[in-house]
Structures are given as structure tokens and as C-alpha cells.
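re: ur question from yesterday

yeah so i grabbed the chain u mentioned. its 239 aa long if i counted rite. heres the sequnce exactly as i have it in my notes:
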Amino acid sequence: MKWHRPEIALSARRRHRGLLPSLGGAAACGRRAGRVQYPGPRHDRLAEHCVTSMEAMADAVTAALEPLLDRPFALFGHSMGATVGYEVAQHLEAQQALPATLFASGQGAPPARRAAGPLHLVDDATILAGVGALGGMYEMVLADPDLAELILPSLRSDLRLMETYVPVPGRQVTVPVTACTGDADPGVSVAEAATWERTTTGKFELRTYADGHFFVAERQEDLTADVLAALPATANQAD
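ran it thru and got these C-alpha cells back, copy pasting raw so excuse formatting
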């Protein structure tokens, strides 16, 4: 299974950033990073089944990251990826392999629930309308029926995974957590992003960027700099 997408520009470096995509997303985003490609009907894993539980997802992502744990690294997860990152960080802590920081982007801390109820149980049109309100890549999906048909199975599966996920109450990580959010994100308020503080016994930071839910696409240079700054100085000198 092709979970890990190593970035060519990062080969032979002693630092690493793990990128975890959003709902229905693929690993074709980000620079200077190792990226995780979820299975299911997306990108080059079209013939595979989606993962149906957060525990199975975290287990598989953790296993995929194991070859990279011999160097300083950080985890960056956007939207669903932020929650996956939180679970992966717990798995890694159990292995004594601590990320320098967990960056939780575009998502409130678990358990994050929609006030309007779960989306994975509704019809396709309502799902598309719900995620379309976030803008960004979902606007392209709404505008292209063929693309919508392709992405809907993985989107519904990811929504089901998120909406049925029940975190262990009160469980915290010890690694620093940095919450990142767009100040105009219609799905996550700044106050909701700040709830990540309760997930760690370590240092917490909240960073706000000028944009909507997909601020990550417009602010890649800033985000890359922020992530690299979180890594040990010896690792950054290897650049």
C-alpha cells in the first residue's frame, strides 16, 4: 500500500515534515515534505477501499512514517488530517518517537461535531453543498459533475470516519501543538481552533492566517517556514 509520498527535494535531508490531507483529499499538496496518501478512490489508489476507522487509519499512517523516524520531524495535518495527526502523535509517543510539534490546521480539537448533524448520512447533493461552503478545491468539485462523482465515495467515507470517531476522553499528548486557522474559515472559528490547547500537556500556540479554510494553498511558504522553525536547530542547519 502506497501510504507515503516522499518529496524529492527532501531526500538526504535530516529533517522531515509529515503532511496529512483533508477530507477526500490526496497527497498532491505541500513542498519539502513527506506526504501521506490515504487509500480509497483518489489519486493513484483508486482501486483500494477507504479506511473506515480512525484507529486503523492512525495505525497505518504510523507504520508508513516509521522509515522517517530516524530524523527530527513534525506532523502537519489539515482538516481531517489534523485529527489523524493527533491520533498518530499518540501512537508515536507510545513508541518513544516524538514529533517536534503537531500542527493542527483547519479543524477544531476532537471531538469536533457539526451543529447541523452528521453529513455522511445524507444524500450526495447535501454532502457537496456542505463541503462546498468551505470553498477552495470543493468549489471545483461542485462545478464538475464528473469530478464530484469520482470524489464522493472517498468524501463520504472520510466524513463517516470523522463523524463516528470517539477520542479517549481527556487523553493528551506531551508534544507541543500549534493550531493553525484561516481567519475567514466558514467551518472553523478561531475560538474552535484554540480548543487544541486542551489536547497537550506541552507548549501550545495558535496561529491565524488571512484566508478561508484552504489558506494552506495560499500560504505554503509561510507554513513551511513555521514548520521548519519548529524543528531542532541542528536539523535546520542540514538544509
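noticed a couple things. The two ends are 30 Å apart (CA to CA). also The first strand starts at residue 4 and ends at 5.
anyway ttyl
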